[in-house]
UniProtKB/TrEMBL annotation:
Entry GO MF terms: DNA binding; transposase activity
This protein's name: ORF2 in transposon ISC1190
Coiled-coil residues: 97-124
Keywords: Coiled coil
Organism whose genome encodes this protein: Saccharolobus solfataricus (Sulfolobus solfataricus)
Keyword Transmembrane: no
InterPro entries on file: Transpos_IS110 (IPR047650), Transposase_20 (IPR003346)
Domain Transposase IS116/IS110/IS902 C-terminal: 126-211
A GO biological process held by the record: DNA transposition
């Protein structure tokens, strides 16, 4: 089921009742915009599903690792370990391992299906794909969550929408950093975080940023800072409609 914006529906009814070349043109434009609205809504819903499934896969894998440790194996989901476990005598833990493996396969199949569906809904020629570190899937997710980037008049608004803006507290004359606000789009924020993990290896700007700040920031804080930098780059590429340029 698709929900239509009531204002769009009213416009459709108003135009449809007035026959003229001018109104025919308006009707055609409205139908196109409605199709775009539907596509964006559908794509955004798919990204929410993808995000949920991705996090579910992580949880299932963590439970599998825990069970393997209980059965005397190292913290590894290697095929060798799993095959040995499955040949063991039935017990409660082994039953859970079998259940989790079935669940993992089901989740991964659905995840691949969603990725294929997103490919069909998102423009394949978007300049976002010129940014090193942003692959097809994460690029589609970012585009679907952002929609029209022109609604963000500057990079700060975009970064805030992603929930990647720095959270600071003022205490007297001191300014204390408290990480990021997390007030924006959680799916979008996680997409940029995942993209940053690749970008620190293949994107010259992010790689340089990573090297410059790894002395002051560690672990997730450093990757989050890289994700924020990547979000700024993405905004600039989409807003100004220019391919990624490492020299800028």
């Amino acid at each position: 089921m698709r929900i239509i914006n009531p204002l769009v529906l009213k416009k459709f009814k108003d135009i449809r009742g007035k026959k003229s070349d001018k109104n025919d043109k308006k009707l055609a434009e409205l139908v196109i915009s409605m199709g775009s609205e539907f596509t964006t809504s559908e794509a955004k819903e798919l990204t929410s599903q993808w995000d949920f499934i991705t996090r579910s896969i992580v949880r299932v894998k963590n439970r599998l690792r825990r069970d393997l440790i209980l059965l005397g194996y190292k913290d590894s989901l290697s095929k060798k370990n799993l095959n040995e476990v499955l040949r063991g005598e039935d017990n409660i833990v082994l039953s859970e391992v079998r259940f989790l493996l079935d669940e993992l396969e089901r989740l991964e199949v659905r995840k691949r299906e969603i990725e294929e569906e997103l490919e069909d809904l998102v423009p394949k020629d978007s300049l976002i794909f010129t940014i090193p570190g942003i692959g097809r899937t994460l690029g589609c997710i970012i585009l679907a969550r952002v929609g029209d980037v022109k609604r963000f008049g500057d990079k700060k608004r975009f970064v805030a929408y992603c929930g990647l803006d720095p959270l600071v507290e003022f205490s007297g004359k001191s300014v204390v950093s408290r990480g990021i606000s997390r007030r924006g789009d959680a799916v979008l924020r996680r997409a940029f975080y995942l993209a940053a993990l690749t970008a620190i290896k293949v994107n010259p700007i992010i790689k340089r940023f990573y090297e410059e700040h790894k002395g002051n920031l560690k672990g997730k804080k450093l990757i989050t800072a890289c994700a924020r930098k990547l979000a700024v780059i993405t905004w600039a590429v989409l807003y100004y409609n220019k391919p990624f340029d490492a020299s800028e």
